[in-house]
Structures are given as structure tokens and as C-alpha cells.
Amino acid sequence: MATPVAVQMNLHPTMNWDSIDIVEAFKKFRRKSQLVFKSFLKGITDEEKVSYILLWTGEKGLDLFNSWDMSESDCNNPDTLLEKFERHLEPRSNHRIHRYEFQGLKQDPQETIDNFLSRLKNIAEKCKFRDKEEKIVGQLIWGCAYKEVQKSLIGKDTLQLIEAVDTARAFEATTKQMASLTLQTSSLGSSVDIVSSHRTKHTRKQRTCQYCGTEHKFNNRKKCPAFGTHCKACGKLNRWEKMCRLTKSQKYKPQFSKRSGNRRRDIHAQQQEQNTSEEEFLAVGTINVHEMGKDDQKENEAYTTIRIQKKSGKKRINIDLRLKIDTGAQSDILPVNFYKMFPEHMTEEDKIKKGILTPSDVILTAYGGDGRTKHKGPPHCKCNDYKASRNQRGDQER
User: Tell me: the pLDDT tens digits for 355-365?
Assistant: First the structure.
């Protein structure tokens, strides 16, 4: 009889005598041997099957076989030989010990529900339970790592094993899918702060532009003729003088500090533009950068230190505030809690005094349009940049 190609290619089982659970290792070896005898070694005699088994078990298996006192008929019976090996390797087991082990089984955090179920079934085989399936269902519930699955299953009076497993599998698959979506949409490291302006009326059709006064499409801001230019009235970027909403008395006038001679300008233009009949929303959000580590975040961000003067009686105290370099946003935001550092601007009820802030109709929204917050108005405070010594102004929010 010619040697099968599968045998020549070493497609045969081997016994792992170094396995931690040698009993389970032999059970797998026995099942694989039976599959081989039903497939590409189908049709061989029992004596040949015994020879193959002894070859696959190696020298240790052959030594055990030679030490047994077996009849000639048993020696030529492959099923009897496999039973002999299993009885020799199977220690005397105490089902109570296995039951104690069964009750302590818990699903590992990274373990799938199917692997946990396999462990439950393997131990349950040694526990001699009268109602094995019911015991497995109970331990599946108590040992499951998902609290939501436990709450769902524990309230059911009649529950089959297949139903419990399907429920756990469905929740497990949903959890993995949601985690995958979160990784695709959330930032792993760095974010860039921006403030974008959204009008209540959105259209890309051609109409008169509020920045240049001409008619053009609004699908690209850079197509506006005023883009990149400065208004001669207020000095604001990307606007022409004829569309400026400032009154003549409020036109832009450069001022110079007597102390340092540095240039200072007022920025009432934004305030006047906000107090119009057309409601304006300033959306504060983030641009997410995918797969950027924390180290990259620190390297790619630029900061400066602003010195703010705080009045305390007749004295003035300098406070250093570390700020991120302007990212091109239309507005900077300062929380009310931080503004409380200026007690002369606060009432005894810990509220901002009237007249300190210029009224504003701007509404701040988070990324996606959620979390609308009323803008209290822009304040005026002296700020000193270490390098440029420029007077700055900031916006104040709730």
C-alpha cells in the first residue's frame, strides 16, 4: 500500500508530552487521530492504526505501551489502546474540587464570550452536575465581564444557554464596533483650537457679500475680493471700508503708549458687528489630529506668556498667564472664574460689575452645534507680552 501524500507531508497529529494539562492534550491528540483514520488513512487495518498511534506518541508513548501487560487482541485494537493511554494519564479527580473551581470562573477583560464559554464547559464536564446546562447558564451570568449583559439576563425567569450566549455575543460585537468608531473619530493626541462663525442663514448662491459689497458665490471664502486685505476704517482683516459698520467717531485710530511708545489699537469693530439684527453664533471647537502622541502635541504647540496687571489698593500686581499662540480664530475666550482675579471688577456677590463688559449678542457653541452659551461681552484689561510688550484684549464668556 502506497504511503498517503498527507502522511508524507507530516499532516498527522503528534502528542505533546510537555503540555501543562497533559490530559487535555491527549484528548485533543485522540480526536485528531480519529479524524485522520476517517479521512486520508481511511481503509487501513486496525494493526496499522495501532502502529500509527505508537509512532505519533513518540518514544514516551512507546515506552508506556511496552510497560503494560496487554493481551494480543488488545494490543491490535486502536480504540482499546487509546483508552489505555487516557486512563493512565487521567488522575483520580474529585468532582467537588472541580465544582469549587467552576464557581470561581470569571471572564477575563480581553477574553471573548466564546472562549469563556469553552472554559465553563470543560470544567463542567468534570463536575458531575445533574443539570449541567443550567449551571453553565448561571455561571455565565455571574462570571460575565459585561454588567449590561448581567442586568439583561438576570431578570429572565426561563433562560436557555443558547439565548444567553447570543445576548452576550451581540453586546460584545456592538461594544467592539463602537470602540472602533470612537478610535476613528476621536483624537489620540493633539488638538488645535479654533473658533468658527456660523450665521443662521446659510446659502452658497450668489448674493451681495457683506465683506466686499460685490456679488459672488460663497462656496469659497478666498474667492472674496476683500480676502487678505485690511479695512481702512477699523483695520479688520478681510473687509473693505465701504462695508465697515463703524460710525465715523469709532473709526480706527492708532494710539501710542507714552511709556513704551508701542502701538495700541482699539478693537470695537467686532463689538459693533455683533450688535446687529442678524444673530451670530461663534462656535468653539477642535480639529482632531488622528494618531498623534502626547510628545508630538507638546512639540507642535507654541505658547507665550502674557503678564496681566492686577490692582490691589494702590499697588499693581503682575500675574503671568501662559497662552497658546493664536491659531487664527476670530475670538479668544476667557472663563468668568479666571476673570475673578480682578476683584475691582467684581461685586460682593461674586458677579461682574455693570459697565465693565460691553454688551454682546454673540452665542458660543461647541463643536457640532451643542452646548450653546451666551457671551457676556468683551472686557478691557492691560496685558503685557514679555517680548513685544503689546497691550492685548480678550473676550469673556460664562
Answer: 778 887 777 76
Rounded to the nearest 10 degrees, the angle between the axes of helix 95-103 and helix 132-143 is 30
Residue 198 has pLDDT above 60, yes or no: no
Find the distance separating the first CA and the last CA of the chain, reported in whole Å.
90
Cβ partners under 8 Å of residue 9, min gap 6: none
Phi then psi for residue 219, to 5 deg, are -80, -10
Give the SS3 label for residue 396: strand
User: Sign of the CA dihedral 367, 369, 374, 377?
Assistant: positive
Residue-wise pLDDT tens digits, 368-396: 555 567 777 887 766 665 555 444 444 44
| Model pTM above 0.70 | no
d(CA 380, CA 364): 20
Buried b or exposed e, range 61-86, using 16+ CB within 10 angstroms = beeebeeeeeeeeeebbbebbbebbe
Task: Mention every residue, 6+ apart, whose C-beta is less than 8 A from residue 363.
Answer: 279, 280, 281, 282, 372, 373, 374, 375
Q: What does residue 157 show for φ and ψ, rounded to 5 degrees? A: -70, -50
